[in-house]
Amino acid sequence: MPQQNIIDAIHSLVREGKAISTAAVKARVSGPVNMVQLLQLVSRYKQSPGSLPAAEPINAVDEPQHDASLAAKVAELEARVARLETLLTSSTALKEEQHD
User: Fold this and answer.
1) Domains: count for the chain
2) CB 6 within 8 A of CB 29
3) Which of 22, 23, 25 is nearest to 12 (CA)?
4) Residues 6+ apart with CB under 8 A from 68
5) Domain boundaries, position 32
6) Which positions are tagged coiled coil (predicted)?
7) How far is Cα 20 from Cα 50, in angstroms, rounded to an integer?
8) Minimal CA–CA distance to 15: which of 64, 47, 58?
9) I need a labelling partner for 67 at 20 to 30 A (CA). Which of 14, 60, 76, 91 fits?
10) What does the pLDDT look like over 33-90, one tens digit per residue?
């Protein structure tokens, strides 16, 4: 439900203490946004914050998979950093040898 995505984005911004603006909400929503709904919901929130339905609960079942995905990404980035450090050390050593 596209409208729920907009509502979830508004609630997400509120939880983070960020200002609710059309641009901020649009940036938070993934995928295409119905601008009419976006404008209506942002306006509705600004007039009466309690008038919006609750945010859709985050599916707890996805969290372990998400954690595993993040762990894999961290491991990949650590390996890349280690390789770059090795290349940098090699490059620095080579330059020092050339200057000697």
Assistant:
1) 2
2) yes
3) 25
4) none
5) 2-51
6) 67-94
7) 14
8) 58
9) 14
10) 899 999 999 999 899 888 877 777 655 555 666 677 888 889 999 999 999 999 999 8
How many residues can be counted in the chain? 100
* Residues 41 and 18 both lie in one domain: yes
29's torsion region: left (phi>0), alpha (psi -120 to 50) or beta? beta
Dump pLDDT digits (tens) for 49-58: 888 777 776 5
Let me know whether 42 and 69 are in one domain: no
Structure tokens at 74: 């961290």
- How many whole angstroms separate alpha carbon 81 and alpha carbon 77? 6
Task: Give 29's contacts (C-beta < 8 A, 6+ positions apart).
Answer: 5, 6, 9, 38
